[in-house]
Amino acid sequence: MASSQFGAAVSLHLGSKSFLGSQLISSRTSALPPRTKPLCSVSVRAATALAPSFTTLKPLGDRVLVKIQSVEKKSAGGILLPTTAQSKPQGGEVVAVGDGRTFGDKKVALSVQTGKNIVYSKYAGTEVEFNGINHVLLKEDDIVGFLETEDIKDLQPLNDRVLIEVAEAEDKSVGGVLLTESAKEKPVVGTVRAVGPGALGEDGVRKPLELVTGSTVMYSKYAGSDFKSKDSIQYVVLKAPDVLAVLS
User: What family is it from (predicted)?
Assistant: First the structure.
């Protein structure tokens, strides 16, 4: 039997996440005494390397196989990034799909087709090295949406997900004090820019969303995935049930 090898994808937990990557901020600290625990936690995520004898990989059910996009090794200014500073890729190309979901005796095909470029939840799925290329096996529900450009504002959400342009945080407190970036409240209001076709019900029938583009909404404070567009506008992609109210 062919033996499996294991690689590792290492990521630092540094707070906020962005489609354009995370920025490392270093600070000068005093010398630490021997055996002091590190200041930040590091998690290691194993990626299975399949033996060359396996030539096909067929996802089952509602799973899809995605070829992961390459990691940016340089910053926008051309600076070479260390491995720990490289952002984990969140997008890729769909190369294989399962047969779909089953609802009783009804089979419903997936909304995702091969060749589509997608964005997926940051830590979703199972990473696998197949034919020397990094892939990830995902459930369809782990896919945030389709993205055929390099700008998140062009995202087309999948199923019951919604793309929201986040309102700017207040610069001053109620008393008129100018707030620093760290003191600003995380926004919970934004404008709907795109909506998915709706989720499948228990009967296998897709139910369209009630939300419409252009609406101003209030949403759960820590729901969804945060992104930043090329022109530095903040977006959040979340599921429709995380939208709490429509404002007018």
Answer: Belongs to the GroES chaperonin family.
The verdict on 137 and 208 lying in the same domain is no
Same domain, 207 and 118: no
User: pLDDT per residue over 33-88, tens digit each?
Assistant: 555 444 333 334 556 888 888 888 999 999 999 999 875 555 555 565 454 444 44
Dihedral sign computed on CA atoms, order 27, 33, 34, 35: negative
179 in the same domain as 98: no
Per-residue burial over 30-40, b if 16 or more Cβ lie within 10 Å, else e, is: eeeeeeeeeee
pLDDT tens sequence across 152-177:
999 999 999 999 999 986 554 556 55
Tokens matching residue 146 = 């389709």
Where in the sequence is the domain holding 223, given as residue range(s)?
158-248
pTM as predicted:
0.69
